[in-house]
Structures are given as C-alpha cells and as structure tokens.
Protein 1
Amino acid sequence: MEIGGAECLGAKVIAVSRNQAHTFHKSNQKSVQLLAGLGVQGDAHMGQTVKHRSRVASDPSQPNLRQVHLIHTELHAELRASGFNIAPGQMGENITTQGIKLLDLPRGTRLHIGETAVIEVTGLRNPCSQLDQFQPGLMAAVLDHDAQGKLIRKAGIMAIVLVDGTVSPQDPICTELPPQPYQALERV
C-alpha cells in the first residue's frame, strides 16, 4: 500500500508517551498531538529551539532537531532478552514503533503516522549516562560496533514535526524516502 508517495509495509505505533518535566521516563498516553515545527504537545522537549539541557547549556538558539524521539519495540525485546526490564516510554521515547528498521532510515526520511501527522528523521539519539542510572549496564547495551569498528547507536532516532496530527497506538507508519543519494544518520 502507498499513501502520498509513502510506502506502508505494516509498520505501526505500539505506544505514545510524553512528560512535561525534564525527567528520563515518559508516561504512556492514549494519544499525543504532534505540532508542526514544535514537537509533542505537553512534552518538555517541545519547541523550535533545543530543549535538551546539555544542548541548551552550549547554545540555546540551536534549532530543535530532537522534537520527537522514536524507539523500535524490537530494541526493547533485545534488551529484555539480555536481562533488562524495559517498557515503552521508559527510555524517554515519544513513539515506540514496530515493524520498521528505524536505524536504517536515511536522514530526511518522512514518516507518515496515523491520519495526518508527518515527521522528518533528523538523526540518531546519542545515548547518555541516564540510561545507566535507570538500569546499570543499559548504556553499553544500546551501543555496538560494526565489522569495521564503527560505533552503532541503537537508542532510537530523532525527528522534527512537519505536519500536525494525533498519533495513537496501532496507527500505521508509512515511509517516504528522500531523494538519493541517501545520507546516513548521525547523532543529533
């Protein structure tokens, strides 16, 4: 199935989460409202400029490329198999997905979620020490290395909101790739 040039291959939303406070965890919700150019309504990271404390400290005028954080539920399953107790929202993500290889998407990919929301992938989440404060060893568990020794960050991706929309669990996710040549995701 295809919607407006976006390919729909069975990917879907498993959970949506937000938190008004700058805390590590986000609470699961029945739905979240995505606002174009801002992020998740009612979330501490919503805004046109950076909201993550470390980035605000270095330059509060930077554009917010981290309006929406997505993690694939397949990572949760991998972590649970390694002995961690992980549920949606606990690693700070706004949208938990299933059936889409988030880490393989090129920068600029647009994800059409639910009936109207559209987000654009900006880069990888850079895992921080808060993961170890949540569960010891979790930060190392979301980092890996490929065959050439390059660091792989598995803690999800970040995006900006292009088109407003309500997002709920079970909503479909359709992928619209950017023009080639594709640019690999880097940390943002």
Note: The domain at 2-176 is CATH 2.40.33.20 (M1 Pyruvate Kinase; Domain 3).
Protein 2
Amino acid sequence: MDCIFCKIVEGSIPSKKVYENEHVVAFHDIQPAAPVHILIIPKKHIATMNDVEPGDWGLLGEVHQAAQEIARQVGVAESGYRLINNCGKDGGQVVFHIHYHLLAGEKLGPLNAR
C-alpha cells in the first residue's frame, strides 16, 4: 500500500505529532490553512467515510475524543475550532486515508457552499 498516512503511522515518514494513542495519531499539516491546522487520523487504514464499517464507529468516536483533547492542549477549545472530514475527490479529499482537519487559531469564515 502506498498511503502517506500509513507511512506516518508506521514511522517511515516523519511528522510533527501532537497526539498519539493506541488507535489514533495527530500531527501538524505541512500546508496549514489556519494558524492551527492539525490532521487527526485513525491508525487503521480506512480510505473514505464511505468505507467505514459498523465495527469502525467506535474508532471514529476515539478520533473525535482526540480532537477534543487536542483542542484543549493547543488552547482553542474555548475560542472554537472547525473539524472537517472531506470524503471523495469531489468532496476535496486528497489523501485516501480517512482523516479530520482541526482548524483554529483565528476567527474562521463561513464555508462557501452553494
């Protein structure tokens, strides 16, 4: 498998980690879209939200718990943050390993939806 996020999980590609437990890892995005831009991923490879199976819902709950803890750690829990999952090419997904973007550190504008 040639998944960049799986390589980060296994340690063959370095990252600036901010959180890690048995099932989840989080690290700074190398192309930040906000002053705080952290990627949160399950260590298990799941390509997209559409590939989540019933047994994976607990794992995604752990991802959300990690987001809460990371927001507290970096000092944005009270001021607010955005947690985004892009699904599929048209949804803006670039790396096909399910992940969430935690964006914060400034007042974020509205999403540009049609």
Note: Residues 35 and 105 are 5 Å apart (CA to CA).
Protein 3
Amino acid sequence: MRFGLNLRGVVGKILEQAWFMDESDGDQRLPHHRSPPEFVSLDHLADAGVLYWKLNPSDYENDEELRKIREARGYNYMDLLDLCPEKVDNYEQKLKNFYTEHIHGDEEIRYCLEGSGYFDVRDKEDRWIRIWIKPGDLIVLPAGIYHRFTLDTSNYIKLMRLFVGEPVWTAFNRPQEEHPARKQYARSLAEKVGVALAAH
C-alpha cells in the first residue's frame, strides 16, 4: 500500500491499524478501541494532513522508493532510534513526555523498521485517532497537528527519523493556538473544507 506522493492512490481504503480511540485513561500501551471498533480510512488521515507509505524495512539502506520520497520532500537528515527500556536513559520520563499532547514547528517523519508503537493524532473534530505503526510504515505528521506517541505492549520500536535541514525536536505542549505552525495548520484545514464544499 502506498500513500503520500499520490495522495488519493488508495481512495477510501480502511486501515485496520488506525481507529478512533475510546475515552478511557487506562494503560496507554493498550489499543483503546471504541466498542465496537471504528476504523479510520486513509482519506480521513489525509484530510488531517497525515501522509502514509508502506515500504520494505528489510532493505531500507538501498530502498529506491524511500530515496525518491526523501528527494521529493527534501528529507536530507536521517538518524535511527531504538526505543525500549534497555536502551533509553530515563525511559519512563521520556515516554511520559512523548505521550503529552503537543505540536512541532516542523513535520514529524517516522519510519518504523522494527517493533511497533502508536502515534495518536487529533482530527478536524478534535477526536483522537490511534495509528498503529509496524515495520514498513512511514508516516508524516504535518507541522502544527496535535499528537502524541507511545509504545505498545511490545515495549520496543526502531525508528528512522527524517528531517528537512538540521533537526529541531522541540515540542510545544497544548494549548498552542497562537503558535505560527498551529495557525498555518488550522488555515490548511479550513482551505480543505472550502475546496470540498466548492466541489459539491
């Protein structure tokens, strides 16, 4: 499945790895499905500005499609991150920080090479969508979108982090309605709604 360069290439496709979350405050590493589960389409994620590709994680160093994505989107910085209790200092505190709702001033680009975890994003109606990323999943979260991250019960993920230019990892915790990236993101959502209405 490929989604991103051709934004409507998988029209209406339902991902069994993205769903609306319930409102419970139990273990953040559990799926938190609603009852019954409500899965989310790639189109719905695209409407929130989230891009998605399915790639081959076993050959990421020579992957031509990954190279094309990086070239097309200007991702000239790359590093790898192993996230698990054994390899990260202050693991519990870092995971708590990652799970605090926030925005960034730039895109957040993550490519899962091993393990799994959850990115939660807010949609246009401010509902949480949980995206379960596994090996081969590359997602791009737009600057200004409210989001958070947690591991699942496997407690391990290996991520490639991509960036345009020098990386800036600063998180701005909600509320950030006056932040320039948040204002630009809100404008882009409003423009999408305007285009959709004009098409009717």
Note: The chain has a mean pLDDT of 89.
